[in-house]
Amino acid sequence: MFPRTFHAFTLMLIASSGIADARPADTDALRFQQNLIAVLECRATPTERQALGSQLRAARYGVATERPAHLRGWRFIAADHPEIESAATRIELPAPITANGITTGELLADDLGLGMSINAVQRDRIVAEDGLQMRTSTLHEPFRVWWRPSSDDAAAAQAWRVIRSEGAGNRLSCDYRERYQKLDDQQAADRLREDLVAVLECRADTAAWQRFGEFWTRVSAHSPLGWPAQVRALDAPACMAREGGSRCERITLDAPISVHGLAVSSVMIEPSYASGHVAADLGMVPVDDALQAAIPGATAAGEIIWTLPAAPLQERPRERFVVRTADGRTLMGCATSKAIHSGR
């Protein structure tokens, strides 16, 4: 059987499971070839995607001797692990095809649909042609994604080429815009920036805190393909000032925000706490600068943690803090007893 991700791919493409053989075989073969190239180049219509998926499903699950002539010689081989999201089916072709300016004798089918393996030179060319931006994650595969942000233009193309890398290899496929609509991808950029600043400055109301928790869960729980457009990277550095290997989750934003008048590009939380500790990672910004901005009157001498009480959130204590980490970074944020991920 195919991995479940190939099931997802075929179900996405298929409107019905039958194959019409009313046309001559050579016409069917030509149409199939045209649909295949259109799908690989991210310009296929829903009808073309459905037609291609129907024929591939029939070829994979049907009787090999009953395949149409243009699908004889195709070999479908399960690749990777069938129970993980990045699992794929490798398809060996009887003759090479050319799509996206790349000639190949092998395709891949996974949760994003049909794709092609490409090398670094081909990847760099496509990144430049499409103006793709890179996202990185140390917590979820794919670890690197080259992706094009969605457009606000209703007439813009509904699919873009996307490149994924779990290591040395690169996989080229398509990102169809309807894929992540169910994840509420359209959180307004201005509202998100306002919420992040309010949370970090210890003045977020209940609604802003809830939206922040939903945003963070969206990033933490999904691969880079499912992130909001405002996020560029996710990693897990050491956090706060404590020893013993405690790790934070850190999001790098696509554009800096201003928190207490300081530019902030990275935001951290410490998931090991049941409560909410959210910090701007200021990097090598001097502690004195953070204290002057967030806790006026405090001095940096001889301390590693500084706090200042703030207005409570739903009667739960809340305080600003500045931390000097063991590796010399400066963190500036807000601590509360209100949990982050659950929104409670």
Question: Can you characterise this structure?
Answer:
The chain has two domains: 4-181, no CATH class; 189-336, no CATH class. The chain is an alpha+beta fold. The two termini are 42 Å apart. Helix 1 crosses helix 3, helix 2 crosses helix 3 and helix 5 (189-200) crosses helix 6. It has helices spanning 4-13, 25-40, 46-61, 120-130, 189-200, 206-221, 287-294; strands spanning 75-79, 88-99, 102-110, 113-118, 133-137, 144-147, 159-165, 170-176, 231-235, 249-259, 262-269, 276-281, 305-313, 316-324, 330-336. Residues 1-6, 8-22, 82-86, 152-156 and 179-186 have low confidence and may be disordered. A hairpin with a 2-residue loop joins strand 13 and strand 14 (316-324). The protein has a 15-stranded mixed beta sheet with strand order 1-2-3-4-8-7-6-5-9-10-11-12-15-14-13, sandwiched between helices. The protein has seven helices and 15 strands.
Outline the fold blueprint:
Layout: H1 4-13, H2 25-40, H3 46-61, E1 75-79, E2 88-99, E3 102-110, E4 113-118, H4 120-130, E5 133-137, E6 144-147, E7 159-165, E8 170-176, H5 189-200, H6 206-221, E9 231-235, E10 249-259, E11 262-269, E12 276-281, H7 287-294, E13 305-313, E14 316-324, E15 330-336
Largest sheet: 15 strands, mixed
> What general outline do the C-alpha atoms trace?
elongated
Q: Which structural category do the helix and sheet elements fall into? A: alpha+beta
Mean pLDDT, rounded to whole units? 79
Task: Produce a short descriptive summary.
By secondary structure, the protein is α+β, with helices and mostly antiparallel strands.
